Amino acid sequence: MKKNRLTSLIVLLVAVFTFSSCLDSDSESSWDYANYMTVVDYDYMGTPSELRPDFFPYIFTPINPEVLKLYNKEEESKGYLKRGFIVVKLVEGEDFSQKDKTRYDVKIVGIENVLNVKNMQKPELVEGSNALYQFGPKEQFWGDNGYINVAFYPTYERGKGEELDIDDFDLFLDKVSDDNKTLLLRFNHSIPQVKEPINYERLVLTSFTLPSRGQIQSEFPNLEFFGSTNDSIRVKVTALGPNERELESSEFNIKLTY
């Protein structure tokens, strides 16, 4: 099985999605909406049929879902994108100004970023695992549509940057704060500590499937929930940093969807 290298993913985006940067176009009509989106439904053939953007109540039905198909550098199919930054154009007759309308037919005109998606679970290797360089900025941590997103700069063994594998990074439920107000999640580079660490220069963003509300409450019965339907929690992400220093993200809120 081929590894999902960080470097391969970058090449894949350039090779497969010929996005001509419509966001930089002088023509405002070349696109209508852009956001991180999740494929939330498929047709009977397994082709993506509905997209839902983070933090907005829209449902988009793409007329060209085939552009969501992923390939590696050898042009071998890797299935369909599950999450990514997608740019769409409303088809003729659709208009965001239509009152109380949330479902729209769209054409996908660009994909700027494909997010790796992985289940949240504790790996076998935690003690002695490899350190991160640092976390990304506060706005790059959020949760919606059943996923939580983590932004980070990894480290790698000198001369072996091509071996960085996005699937070697894990996120798992760790503990709650002393006041029971915040859930702490542990982010882990689940390989042995490298001997000569080099800082990766690009920010990496990856997604993990959120556990259910019931699972979180079962493991942490004293965790404080809030919101009009008591379905939201406060979250921080921690990780091992350079020189055994602890990294900690800013606190952010997540509304659980189930």
Quick rundown:
This protein has 258 residues and is mostly beta strands. Helices cover 7% and strands 45% of the residues.
Topology:
Layout: H1 6-16, E1 33-42, E2 48-53, E3 59-62, E4 69-71, E5 77-80, E6 83-90, E7 103-115, E8 117-119, E9 129-130, E10 132-135, E11 142-144, E12 147-157, E13 169-176, E14 182-192, E15 197-199, E16 204-209, H2 213-219, E17 232-240, E18 246-248, E19 252-255
Parallel strand pairs: 3-7, 8-16, 14-17
Antiparallel strand pairs: 1-2, 1-6, 4-5, 6-7, 9-14, 10-12, 11-12, 12-15, 12-16, 13-14, 17-18, 17-19
Features:
258 residues, mainly beta, Immunoglobulin-like, 6-stranded mixed beta sheet, 2 helices, 7% helix, globular
Rg (CA only): 20 Å
> Roughly what fraction of the amino acids lie in strands?
35-45%
The total of helices stands at: 2
Uncertain ranges: 7-27
- Secondary-structure element pattern, one letter each: HEEEEEEEEEEEEEEEEHEEE
| Biggest sheet record | 6 strands, mixed
Helix content: under 10%
Number of domains: 2
**Number of E strands:** 19
The CATH topology of the largest domain is: Immunoglobulin-like
Derived structural class: mainly beta
CATH class (first level) name of the largest domain? Mainly Beta
Distance between termini? 33 Å
Any guess at the CATH architecture of the largest domain? Sandwich
> Kindly state the mean pLDDT as a whole number?
88
- Shape from CA axes? globular
